[in-house]
Amino acid sequence: MTIHENDGEIDADLVVKIADAKARLSELIARAETGEKVIIARGRDPVIELKALQPVRSPIGILASLGIDVDLALLERQLDEPYTDAELDDFEGDLDNELGIA
After folding, report:
1. What are phi and psi of 14, to 5 degrees?
2. Which of 71-94 are b and which e, b meaning 16 or more Cβ less than 10 Å from the residue's Cβ?
3. Is 14 within 8 Å of 31 (Cβ atoms)?
């Protein structure tokens, strides 16, 4: 289905008006999750596209997908250890030195 917008055309699998979208929101979300292009229109004007978000992948999940084994117990112990002053300076920078206060 092609709808016309001020500066061109938009291809969509489904176009619904706002009032219909309110009543059918669960259905429209499900259709968008399957990859359909769902447009919500105000009258004849397209306003918004429902689009499924890509799942967020954690760094640990990315490493696991690459076949890299992550020792979660070691990681947890390392994260629980307090940072040294040198590590904090490396991360945050030495503000006193940068401002010439030291």
Report:
1. -150, 135
2. eeeeeeeeeeeeeeeeeeeeeeee
3. yes
Q: What's the whole-model pTM score?
A: 0.49
Q: Which among 41, 51, 42, 52 is positioned nearest to 1, based on CA atoms?
A: 41
Q: List the structure tokens of 67.
A: 């076949």
pLDDT tens column, 85-95: 888 878 877 67
Q: Which runs of E-coded beta strand occur in the chain? A: 2-5, 8-11, 14-17, 38-42, 45-50
> Running DSSP on this structure, what letter comes out for residue 6?
T
Radius of gyration of the chain (CA): 25
Between CA 81 and CA 79 the distance in angstroms is 6
